[in-house]
Amino acid sequence: MAHDEIIDHYSGLARAAAAGPGVEIRRMRETDAEQVLAIYQAGLDTGQASFETTAPSWEDFASAKLPHLSYVAADTTTGQVLGWVAASRVSARPVYAGVVEHSIYVHPGCQAQGIGRALLEAFIAAGEDSGVWTIQSGIFSENAASLALHQAAGFRVLGTRERIGCHYGVWRDVLMIERRSAVAGT
Prior knowledge:
This protein is an alpha+beta fold and 186 residues long. It has helices spanning 3-19, 33-45, 58-64, 115-129, 144-152; strands at residues 23-27, 70-75, 81-89, 99-106, 134-140, 156-167, 170-180. The chain has a single domain (3-136), classed as 3-Layer(aba) Sandwich (Aminopeptidase). The chain has five helices and seven strands. The chain is globular and about 45 Å long. The chain starts with a helix and ends in a 6-residue tail after the last strand.
């Protein structure tokens, strides 16, 4: 088994237990495209997840994400994707090589079941294993569930970008969050 497969194998098993029996955390695959984009669209449809209103094509989605930091939680019996987490580079400049921006979405029928937490924990571990020292994101100030999930995983609020964008006719505030690794980049 290659080094990264060993890491995926063991961290995946540990994270699956956190999400509950019958759930595996694994790398995102092209065969997950339809389910990943459907979950993304469901999140966008809430109006609380992003300024985006329509999920992109798989090609656009996948090309913007780092493959080694793109994971799904899947039902081990049915293969159904229950949620996903993925990262994008913040900058192509070498000084920011260990800084990523992430997104996490959980199927509406699977929320509050530990899926988001298991995905985020696996993502953080994989990021640290690959040298990521800072994970950042923006959360609408009204999205209390996402904020609580991230704070439980060690993220902190850096500040509020007030009225940063107009979304469905309403100017929205975005909380800027980050998690700094105690392992990578020290």
